[in-house]
Amino acid sequence: MKNFFKLLSLPNYAKFCRAALITSVVCAGIEKPAQAQGAETILTIPDEFLSSDFVGNGNFNAIIFGNFQSNSGDVEGRLAVAGDFNLTTGGYSVGTGGQGVNAPDDTDNFVINGAFNNTGVGNWGLRGNMIYNTNPSGTTLPSLIVTGTSIKGGVLDHIRFSDNELIDYYRTLSGKLDLLPNTGTLLFDGYHQYTLKGTSLGLNVFDITLPENMSSDEIKVEIPAGSSAIINILNTSLTISSGSMKMNGADQVNGRVLFNFPNANFISLSHFKWLGNFLAPKASLNGNGGSINGQSIIGGHFDQKGGFEFHNFYFEENSISLPVTLVKFAAAKEGKAVNLSWTTSTESNSSHFDIEHSVNGKVWNRIGTVSSNGESKEKIDYTFTDASPFRENLYRLKMVDLDGSFAYSSMQSVTMDIENAISIFPNPVTDKIRFANRADITSVTINDLAGRQVYSANQVQPDGIDCHALKSGMYVVTMHRSNGSSFSQKVLVAK
């Protein structure tokens, strides 16, 4: 069976190694096997942020890091609020599914780190336990639906919100997902439909920017049946008034679609049904009618109006799966080369590893392929050597399954000594562009910033490239290596 990757490459390794992520990333020096998280999903609060007497896991339907203001609606799953919970008019409920599924009967399902304010509403139903900090006079606590559950006040940091490490955790996760290479396309019909198309049988990744104000528009996701998607919406703000979402192939019920908002500081949804998980760790959210159907992480305040609802489908194991359990990936320079090594603890239907190289994290080139074992439940070690590195090098593994699905590892970086690495000098240049360690360079092209090619050569002369024919200005020099990879660097010609 395939497993989630759950190692995170961050300075505070031990803290983040416990989190389940979609991409495989590596904790240096810690060879901890990655495992599926059972009832947890990728947006689950890691255990280290839960108090020692917390009942249940960190799998919440909605996590609000600011204040929660509502005049009507519900949360069908479990709800955690870092600030105050303020309910003024209308009915409410937490933990009971109408369109989704019920929250567990006996876990801590409603956690408020600030004040619980329930004025003008009266009694309403809660499934599971409630934990809150303060309860101002004049407010009414909800009724417990399940016998044996409880409500407890005077508790601070039942979920550890106060030191901001949890919101930093989600913002880091959002940034990691934003770095995944785009594999899909966005098509606009010129009128009201935005279609996201992906072809990977495994994970599809989209980087998109939508109009800041949308009305009566349709967002459509088309990916192969059984595959999954990370959709990075790059807007700093987004307002949607009515419209719809559609999924072809994507299965939001099993948690296979995640919408990530790495830059957004404000989102407004009015009478709009959002399908899939919702990660907005920097944004405040206004919801007026409609719903979010999936787990939600909201980094700011939440204003709930007009019966807006959070629907939950994700108390089953998240079904995004990848081909290999990776427990280590490392890159180290040795003389003039870079040695890569990695270890898997299990493999299922695995085909091979593509070794990819970049100098800037944006453009990647395959520099080699290593066959995998295919099926294994034991640790297997792999190695690969890059004999011709540049000065700055980034490496990652593309782990490919037999059915064509794939996943990427984390990036590993290696800086070579200048005398051992391919590099361009001087910069700025007044006479000739010269190259260090040019033996591995098979061809060179130079383009101006408009993309026009102004120079091309199939070999590099020992004394470099004469720049006297070039006008003063900025150019892009691209060097091609014998292994098929390339490297581009901006050079200023100053005469």
Q: What would you say this structure looks like, in words?
A:
This protein is mainly beta and 495 residues long. It folds into three domains: 13-37 and 319-415, Sandwich (Immunoglobulin-like); 47-311, no CATH class; 422-493, Sandwich (Immunoglobulin-like). The chain has two helices and 39 strands. The chain has a 21-stranded mixed beta sheet that branches. Strands 27, 28, 30, 31 and 32 form a five-stranded antiparallel beta sheet that branches. The longest helix is centred in the middle third of the chain and has 14 residues, at 165-178.
What attributes does this structure have?
495 residues, mainly beta, Immunoglobulin-like, 3 domains, 21-stranded mixed beta sheet, five-stranded antiparallel beta sheet, 2 helices, Ig-like_fold, Choice_anch_A
Mean pLDDT: 82
As residue ranges, the low-confidence spans are 1-40, 315-322
Radius of gyration: 26 Å
Q: Indicate the overall shape.
A: elongated
Domain count, please report it.
3
Distance between the termini: 62 Å
What is the share of helical residues? Answer: under 10%
How many β-strands, per DSSP?
Answer: 39
If helices are DSSP runs of H or I spanning 4 or more residues, what is the number of helices?
2
The proportion of strand residues reads: 35-45%
> Biggest sheet: strands, sense, closure?
21 strands, mixed
Helix/strand structural class: mainly beta
